[in-house]
Amino acid sequence: MQPWALVPQAHRIDRRGAREERDAYHDHFRYKRITRLASDCPPWVLGQELGWVVRSPITVEMTPVGDIDFGLPEGEDLRVVGNKVGRSEMWRRGAGWIATRDTDWLRFHDFQTPAGWESMFLPNGAGTVEWRLGWGIQIPERYFVMVLGMAEPGLTVPVGVIPARTANAMTSQGGFSIAIEPTRTVKLNRGDPVARIVLLHPESLQATVAEEAAHA
Hints:
216 residues; 31% strand; 5-stranded antiparallel beta sheet; alpha+beta; 4-stranded antiparallel beta sheet
């Protein structure tokens, strides 16, 4: 959807490289060994290669948002209310407002669209930010997309499950987006992995656990 976007990539385990390292230790070192390779464990490999890796499309330094939700009574000045809560940036989200501190990175990455300039980052409240990534997906109805984090230090990606209707609609709203929460200053370079998306069959959300009553 955008020329700067980086579409998700399938993650593949380097089995050959892992085996070459194991064999090098066996053939040329006295003590050093790799007794068991994780890449030879099918369940581990399947878990690592499941889904697609979402990469940062930009180089950016993120800081914690420190936001406050508030309402604007009729007739009151927006800036005055912002001063009262000690925040300098105000964002309209639905019927309410979110005020943030001096988080210039939120305002610094507007991108061009046919409708004009749009924000890449939008505060979500509770310290989280919606990150619009510039690419879209189309999945069958009744399916879901699950978003998982990649354990990037200082950057939390809340687990989310998005239905097909919502995911498909994002193609007309700045692209697929994920929620992020910077917990400290964190620097990302273009191409760094930040999350993973996994396609879910509807039955995976309808499954139940059968519990047997304990017998004395």
